[in-house]
Amino acid sequence: MKNKSLVRALTVAVISALTIGAGISTPFTPNSGPSLLILGDSITWGTEYFAKSQKLIAADEQWQTIVIDGQYSRRVAFPTPNASTKFSGVKTFKKLSDGGLKADAVIVALGSNDVAIETKEEVYELIIRDLMTTIGNVPVTWLTVNRRDTPAIAKRSIVFNQVLVRLAPEYPNLVLEDWYSSIAKRSKWMAWDKVHLTPAGYQARAKLHARLAREL
Fold first, then answer.
1. Per 3-state DSSP, what percentage of the chain is helix, strand, and coil (rounded to 5)?
2. Residue 141's CATH number
3. What integer best gives the mean pLDDT of the chain?
4. pTM passes above 0.70
């Protein structure tokens, strides 16, 4: 029993250490053909690190440039002034654009860290609009949020997703992918912290990224 507890504690420590330092932005060559951006947080990082989502997408040969940019604790945007770039989806998109990435389509996997901090529906609307305006008129697929580490945050995940659904008709270029419902049916995909994923969950998420990339 003690050995099992020790193994679990060590596993938790390793995963936590990896996640806290998590961040990836795959290199790209500016203006090198059809370009796809996956903009996300530590779950996006984990999907690439553990399940090689970029390789899966590249196998279809649809996108010449595939940029995976995931960062621990990244939010959609900050509703008030904040100097951070890497922790803001809006500022990260602008930085990539300034660096020569002209994304022809974007998969957005953000919102989990916003619902952990922000509590107001109007803030969710503000930051979603901010990112959609920043991305502009290219196809966008946005994965709904699934974070359940406390009852309050779980409820806010639902509210955030409801705001996405309400705003979607205003953006003809926006399609929603209901990740929330998909993972709710598969408890083995969810990690112990009720935020991140298990190895099976990351594999499923990588396959989802590949499917969404084909559909864009």
1. 50, 15, 35
2. 3.40.50.1110
3. 91
4. yes
